[in-house]
Amino acid sequence: EGKGIFEAPRYILKNIPGVDNILEFSCNRMDSVCCGGGGGLKAYNYDLTLNIALKKIDEAIELGAKTIVSACPNCKAEMSDAVKAKKEELKKIDVKLKMKVMDVLDVVAKSL
User: Fold this and answer.
1) Given a cut of 60, is residue 12 above it in pLDDT?
2) Which residues of 75-95 are buried (b: 16+ CB within 10 A; e: fewer)?
3) Over 60: is that where the pLDDT of 1 sits?
4) Contact in structure between 60 and 99 (CB atoms under 8 Å)
């Protein structure tokens, strides 16, 4: 649930020079959908976790996102795995995907 902290990471990102266009998944804040990494699901069913995360990657591609940013370490790990899998999938049809996954603090550190 993110402990109800939704606006602070967005405020931080909006105040970083060079971060111009913040996109949102259709389900966000209290309506957010898990990336599949929560609750130890990956240890129980890796394929299910990957499929859940891939749906989010597909939405990010549809939105035109180049970077997915989260404040959740599970999201960073799962979404990174899904981006890697999506890149491999698209590589087979000669399509290159430029997308990365970062933690909010990674974005802050990179801006310093």
Assistant:
1) yes
2) bbbbbebbbeebeeeeeeeee
3) no
4) yes
**One-letter amino acid for residue 108 of the chain:** V
Q: By the 8 A CB rule, do 107 and 19 touch?
A: yes
Tokens of 15: 């105040």
Token readout for 104 is 């909010």
Q: What is the pLDDT of residues 52-83, one digit of tens each?
A: 999 999 999 999 999 999 988 989 999 999 99
Q: What is the pTM of this model?
A: 0.88
| CA pair distance 10, 6, nearest whole angstrom | 7
Angle at 110 between CA 104 and CA 112, to 5 degrees: 110
For 10-94, list the strands marked E by DSSP. 67-70
Contact 69, 102 (CB under 8 A): yes
SS3 103: strand
